[in-house]
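seq as requested:
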Amino acid sequence: MAGHNKWSKIRRKKGVTDAKRGALFTKLIREITVASREGGGEPEYNARLRLAVDTAKGNSMPAENIERAIKKGTGELAGVAYEEAIYEGYGPGGVALYIECLTDNTNRTVADVRHALNKNDGSLGTDGSVAWQFDRKGQITIDATKYTEDSVFDAAIEAGAEDVTNEGDEFVVIAEVSDFMAVQDAMKAAGIEAASAELTRIAKNEVAVAGRDAEKLLNLLDTLDDLDDVQKVHSNADIDEAVLADAT
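struct tokens:
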């Protein structure tokens, strides 16, 4: 699993403070709004919206917030027009960064992203400079304390998943984007509930990062994640376990 995914897992375990929950809700509302605008307001017919709504519910977002965001996306309520923006760059240790944003002001967003990178020994790259280093995939995590590895593996592969890995306290199921929703549905039908599910980018090859570079990279990832306009940050870093442990 890529280093940033490991860091994301650590952040989940730390818990979500009220301030962090507010920031997370802001990101989720933007995703729901854009998904509704692009594919309609019915989750059963809009895979992107369904995933966003499921994620919002999994993070205890009130139903009225979800409904309001959908209506803003479909135009039933007035709302801000967000657009997608992608930024590519490099972090400490030469790791590749693929940064997905939803914004109503690209000038502000690129300035914030560039500032975060420059402040933490990173740099902004050109379009296409790192995208080729990642594959777009669906990723489902399963609580390993609730299910056996064999049961998860059998259900996932039978459903058409590409791979299943054991990450100790969770199983990670990888699927092609085109099969992602079908795999989720089939595993749920088999009695296996997902702890989380997302569309992500998985590095084709990882770059080992340790010592001070790893510490600076974690700080950069944290800074980028905290920007309101940034939805997801993907990296190809394999971060030293000792540095990750200190981060907890």
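The chain has a mean pLDDT of 89.
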